[in-house]
Amino acid sequence: MLARMRSSTLRGIEATPIEVEVDVVGGLPSYHVVGLPTPSVREGAVRIRAALEAIGQALPQKKITINLAPADLPKPGTAFDLPIAIGVLLAETELDPAPVDGLMLLGELGLDGTLRAVRGALAAAILARDLGLRGIVVPAASAAEAAVVEGIEVLAADHLAEVVAMVVGGVPLRRATPRLGAPRSASFDLADVRGQLLARAALEVAVAGGHNLMLVGPPGIGKSMLARRIPSILPPMSHAEALAVTKVYSAIGAAPGGLVDERPFRSPHHSVSAAALLGGGSVPRPGEITLAHHGVLFLDELPEFQRATIESLRQPLEDREVVIGRAHATLRFPASFLFVAAANPCPCGWAGSKLRECTCSATAIERYRGRLSGPLLDRIDLHVHVPPVALAELRGAAPGEPSAAVRDRVIAARDRQRARLAPWGVAINAEMGPAATRATCALSPAAEQYLARLATQRRSMSARTIDRLIKVSRTIADLAGADRIERPHLKEAAGYRAFDPEPVQEAPTIEPPTLA
């Protein structure tokens, strides 16, 4: 008899439907798996045999053939253990397959029949819902993350015997319930930061509009401290964002056993490889930029990273996704994240500082700064110099403004952006395309005049720089509750380009540019 079971496999972070066909016929005892199985799938024969014997069901001493369709797609993972075991049981005993009709089965078997967690349970549940199936059977350890998907019945089992009891005796499996992730951590707060008013303002603008940020300054003055407090001012994730983030972590087996409800903060070491940062491998897996999806990617000591590694960020920073090409498939991983970097001005870190003399030669400084290309720096919207804080302010008892107050302003600004940008299908200013930018970023006549003077005097400004300058100005206007971009908004945005040392020369009758 031929038995057919529904299952799925991961391709990147998405689930692909797989039909498991099990044929048990007379002949010399053998066990064959076809359909491009990986070694982990073929080795499942040992696990399935031991698990069936543990519940009193021996593997038939017959010719067993398993086909995983479609046959031209590689099948990694161990999630086929459960559907193959149930398929063998149905094909051998000729039981009624009705109890598993319309169900997708996934699960790795232990030698004693225990069902172990599998990667990608959330993606499989979404696929089962989209295919119109009535439910999905997963190990209890993976059930909570799959249960966050609405519109599908998620059934949990701890042991193979429970699934067999459902098939043979009609004993229903328990229905899984969703579980939220851990609550927001309150260990980091902007109130801990003393001084640094410019850097704090830049953080608020960057988070409100999703703009990339680079903090430059001597060592030990609080660049990393500021960056690590960014999650405390990020707005809560929507259900759709939380689902997308959970699917990414589920695909690598790192989901927290429920819905991820806190935005990720990723800070890889500067020795990270390009494959680990972008994603890849023989079986492509998400990299750090995908693990930072809807969150923050922080690269501390940016010039210390391998040049080829950080230069590979250029396209993902523009497209907000990364494309991994392999011979058998091309996979797309989401990568919409807030990019934050920190750097010293020179190898010793004290160039331009009044506290300590720089010991680096001009050649060493030029070589150090040359590790960051112009095109990469052009994709970073805010370049902010972080100066040392005076001792009296550093030791002062008065705390800085707390993260909760800043987060309220960020949420209000993002609400304005979401309502304004809804026709273009984006939610934050940094994601605006040319059409949305032209339609929503109206400049006052004074702002247009200032932009023209700025572009004339700073001829190094590229079209991308001007476009990003206008987007940052739009975010500053959103934080101020303004309907259009005024001259002070544009001047403040220009003030955040600390890498360009040229001042803007204006007529004497016009007040000099200041930060709003």
How are the SSEs placed, and which strands pair?
Layout: E1 2-11, E2 14-25, E3 30-34, H1 39-42, H2 44-54, E4 63-69, H3 81-93, E5 103-105, E6 108-109, E7 115-116, H4 121-130, E8 135-139, H5 140-146, E9 153-157, H6 160-169, E10 174-175, H7 197-209, E11 213-216, H8 223-227, H9 239-251, E12 265-266, H10 274-278, E13 279-280, E14 285-286, H11 288-291, E15 296-299, H12 307-311, H13 314-319, E16 321-325, E17 330-334, E18 338-343, H14 362-369, H15 374-378, E19 382-385, H16 391-394, H17 403-421, H18 434-440, H19 445-457, H20 463-480, H21 487-495
Parallel strand pairs: 3-4, 5-8, 8-9, 11-18, 11-19, 12-15, 15-18
Antiparallel strand pairs: 1-2, 2-4, 6-7, 9-10, 13-14, 16-17
Brief summary:
This protein is 37% helix and 17% strand. It is built from 21 helices and 19 strands.
Structural features, described:
Helices cover 37% and strands 17% of the residues. It is an alpha/beta fold and 516 residues long. The protein folds into 3 domains: 2-175, Ribosomal Protein S5, domain 2 (2-Layer Sandwich); 190-403, 3-Layer(aba) Sandwich (Rossmann fold), CATH 3.40.50.300; 407-495, Helicase, Ruva Protein, domain 3 (Orthogonal Bundle). The strands form 6 sheets. A 5-stranded parallel β-sheet has the order 12-15-18-11-19. It has a 4-stranded mixed β-sheet with strand order 1-2-4-3. Strands 5-8-9-10 form a 4-stranded mixed β-sheet, sandwiched between helices. It is elongated and about 85 Å long. The N and C termini lie far apart (77 Å). The relative contact order is 0.09.
